[in-house]
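task queued by scheduler; priority normal; single chain, no ligands, no partner chains; default sampling; output format set to C-alpha cells
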Amino acid sequence: MNQESTEDQVNKVGASDEAVPTETEKNVDVGIESSLESAAVLANSTVKDQQEETDQVKESNDEVGAETIKEEVEERTNSVVADSAGKDQQESVDKAVEEIEEKVAEEAEKEAEKSAIPMLDYPNMDLEALADALEKLLKEHPVQQLKKNTDAIKNVFNAKFGALLAEKKALFLADGGDSIDFQYASPVKSRYNALLTDYKKRRDAYYTELETRLKENLEKRHSVIHDLKSLIADADTKTMYKSFKALQTRWRDIGPVPRNKYNDTWRNYHHHVERFYDLLHLSNDFRDLDFKHNLEEKLKLIARVEALAELENVNDAFKELQQFHKTWKEEIGPVSQEHREEVWQKFSAASKKIHDKRHEYFRSLRSQHQSIIETKLAIIEKISAYDTSMNKKHSDWQRSIKEVEAMRTAYFDAGKLPHSKSEQLWQKFKTATKAFNHAKNAFYKVEKSTQQANLDKKNALIELAESLQESDDWENTTNVMKKMQADWKKIGHVPRKFSDPIWKRFKAACNLYFDRLHNKQDAANKEQMAFIEEKKAYLETVKATDKASLEEINDFIRKWRSFGETPRSVRHIESKFNKHIDKLLEGLSMSPDEIAMLKFKNLVDGYLAQNDGHKLNSEQLFVRKKIDEINKEIQQLENNLSFFSNAANDNPLLLNVRASIDKHINDVAIWKQKLSYIKSLDY
C-alpha cells in the first residue's frame, strides 16, 4: 500500500506544527533554485512536454477531485498488495496503521481540550467549597479543558444537595407539613446553578466557534491545493520551487479541518506534491539530493519506531508512535519512487509491532477484569457490614471514617473497569457508603448541638482569661490560669469554623499573662543571681573551716539563711553547706544523739527557710515510718526473749537480744524528739 495515500495528517491547532527546515534542506532549496534558473533555456522543450501533459489532464478533467485521486491511490495500493508476499499479512499491517492514524487524528482534535488541571478532593468538600471550586475553574482555565473537573463537581454537588434536600424535607414533614407544600431555597444552590449555566454557555460558544474555524481551515487547504495545481500547470522554472516551499508553509500553518474531510483533503494535496516532485526531473541531481535527505530522515524515524517496541509502558510507546506518524506526514517530504514503498512498509511493520503489543496489553487487562470485580465486591461487602453501633464519641467516628476511607481508597486502587462493567458495581458501592454516611450524619447532627454547648463553655473561659491577663495577684492568678488551660483541654470539640478563632483568643490571653509572669520572674532571677554568688563565696569560707564551736556553727547557719531562699536551679549548694555543717557538728564534744538531733534541726530548718513544705511533709512521713519500723523490731526482739525462758542471765545470746532492745528503745526516743520538733514548726 502506498504510504503517501494512506497516511492521515495530525490536526493540531496553531503554528507549532510548522517544521523548521534543517541546514541540509536549506542547501537543497538553494541548489534547486539555482539549478532551475541556470537550466531554464536548456529545459524549455522538457517543460513544454510537461505543460502539454498537464494541459491534457486539464482537458480531460479540469480539476482532479478527491474521488479521482482516491481511485488512483487504490489502484496503486492494489498493485503493491498484489506484489507482496502475503495479502492477509499486508491487510493486517494496513489495518493496524489505519487504527494508529485514526487515533492520531482523534488525539489531535482533542489537543486543545487536554489539560493538567488537578482533580481535587471534591467528595470531602461542602456545597460552598464546591461552588467556589467551580467558580475558580471558570476564572482560571479555558472552558474546553473543564469537562472532567466540572463533571466531578456536578456529581458530588448533586449528591450532597440531594441528601440535604431530603433531610430538610424529612424535618418539614416531621413538623406536620404537607409534602406538596415543601419548598427549600438555598443561596449556594442558586449560585451553583448560575455558574453551571455560565459554563454551558461558554462551552457551547466554544464548540460553535470551533466548527466555524474547522470549515474555514478546510477552505484554506482547498485554496492551497488549487494554488499548487496552478503552480504545476504554469511550471515557471525560475520561481516554482520557492513558490512550492511557500505553499508547504501555508499548508502547515493551517489548523485542523473536519475529521470526515481530512483524509480526502490530505490525499489530494499529497498527490499534487508528488506531481510537483516528478516535474523536478529537470534537475535530477538536486531533486535526488532532496529525496536522499528525506530518505535518511525517514530511516531515522523507522529506527526510533523500532526502538519503541522495547519500552515497557505500552501507553507511552503508543503516544510516541502517534507523534512519529505526525512527523512522517507533516515534516518529512517524499522519497524517490524506488524507495517509497519499501520505507513505508518498514515504517508500517514497525508501527504494527507497537499496535499489536498495545492490543495484547488491553486483552490482558480484560482478563483481569473478573479479579478486579471480585476485589471490589469484597470491599463493598466489608463496607456494608461495617458496624458503627459502638461509636459513641467524635474520636470513635474519626477512627471509623479513616477505616472506611481506607476501604474506599482500596476500592478505587483495585483497578479500572469499562463503564459497562463498573456502573452496577458503582451503584452498590454508593449504596454501601450511603448507609455509613447516614449513620455518621445522624451522630454529628446530635454532636452539633453538643459542640455549640462546648463553644459556650470555651467562650466563658476566654472571658475569664481576658479579665485576668493583666492581674498582679501572681500566685492565685497563676493557679487559676493553669486550671483554665486544663479545663479547656477537657471540653470537647466546637464547630470547625469557630475552632481556630476562639483558640487564638484564649491563647493570646494566656500568653499575655504568662509573659508578664516570666518577665517578673526573670527580673527576680537577676536579683537572685547576685546573692547566689555571695552564697557560693560564703560556702567556700565555711568549707575552709575545719573545726568550730557550737556557737560558731550556729553563726554559720544564721549567716547562710540570711541570704534568703536559694533558687531551685542551684539547690545543690544547700546540700554542700549542710554536709560541711554536719562535719563540723561531728567534731564537737557531744554525744552522738545530741549531734544527730543538731543535724536534723539544721536540715529541717533549712527546708523551713526555703518555704519547702513538700520536703517538710516528706521528712515528717519518713520520721513516722522509722518510728514504726523500730517499734516492730523491738516487738520482734521481745517475742524472741520467750525462747530464752530457761537460759541463764549471762547467756551471750540473751545478753545480745537485750542490748539490741535497749539500743532500739534509745533510737525510738531520738526519732520521737525529731517528730516533736518538726511538728512544732509553723509551715
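post-processing summary
- Confidence is low (pLDDT under 50) at residues 1-85.
- The chain has four domains: 3-115+215-358, 122-208, 366-452, 613-683.
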